[in-house]
Write a structure and sequence with these properties.
The structure holds two protein chains of two kinds. Chain A is 36% helix and 38% strand. Chain A is α+β, with helices and mostly antiparallel strands. In chain A, β8 and β9 form a beta hairpin. Chain A starts with a strand and ends with a helix. The C terminus of chain A is likely disordered. Chain B is an alpha+beta fold. Chain B has one domain: Beta-grasp domain (Ubiquitin-like (UB roll)). In chain B, strands 2-1-5-3-4 form a five-stranded mixed beta sheet. Classes of the chains: A alpha+beta, B alpha+beta.
Chain lengths: 144, 92
């Protein structure tokens, strides 16, 4: 299951999709909205996706993961729209026969999703707003 | 003969619809723009867009997607393609 949704993500539902009777491990990554950035308070984030391409890209990533690790099931759900600090923005769940594979596959999927899926977030502060990582100067600031 | 040659080298103007996301939406001033240009590759479209919207050069990266797949500059375009500007992504 790969989903881009404007509604709150039902974490248990994503986990259930990934579960399998043959699995000895289910690994879940939950991404949440942080309340600070550049030492400023984040009021909320605006997430936007190129939905059809995001689903296609995430599918490629999950397919690649299932070639590298013995995935028995998987689920990825990414939220878009307005999210406040503490809210869940993304859930990745995978199941495999043994735990090590589940950790590695889950990390592979979330790392590649962040790098390739056409999804964007804008941070909204009290004194302005900014698309994350879009401009070089900001990228440097974010790393410092 | 000379006339024929002129006809042969005349470029055809193509019309592409380009969708924009994230910061590129702010730069082009909307979710979509129509490009009419002489040229038919992703690279030519990129050069056209950068000259029309110089702020695009200030981005950390700019990919162009064709029919939901990241495209190389050498890739050819057809007017029916779904074309999109992909600025640096920040999902997760």
């Amino acid at each position: 299951m790969i989903k881009i949704t404007e509604k709150a993500i039902d974490v248990q539902k994503v986990i259930d999709t990934a579960c399998s009777l043959g699995a000895g491990a289910v690994n879940v990554f939950i991404g949440t909205v942080r309340n600070t950035a550049h030492a400023k308070n984040v009021l909320w984030l605006e997430y936007e996706a190129y939905e059809s391409m995001a689903v296609a890209e995430i599918k490629k990533i999950v397919d690649e993961a299932s070639h590298r690790w013995p995935l028995l099931g998987s689920g990825v759900s990414h939220r878009i729209g307005t999210l406040k600090p503490g809210e869940v923005s993304v859930v990745v769940a995978v199941s495999t026969p043994h735990r090590r594979d589940s950790f590695e596959a889950c990390q592979f999927i979330i790392d590649n999703l962040k790098e390739k899926a056409p999804i964007w977030k804008k941070e909204v502060f009290e004194d302005g707003e900014e698309w994350i990582s879009a401009q070089p100067v900001r990228a440097v600031e974010a790393q410092s | 003969m000379a006339l024929e040659r002129n006809v042969l080298i005349m470029e055809v103007t193509s019309r592409y619809k380009v969708r924009a996301f994230g910061i590129t939406k702010d730069i082009i001033g909307g979710k979509e723009t129509v490009v009419e240009m002489e040229g038919s590759t992703v690279g030519e479209l990129r050069r056209y867009l950068v000259s029309r919207y110089p702020s695009l050069t200030g981005l950390r990266s700019l990919f162009i997607a064709v029919n939901h797949t990241y495209a190389e500059d050498a890739q050819g375009l057809s007017e029916a393609d779904e074309i999109a500007l992909i600025p640096p992504v920040s999902g997760g």
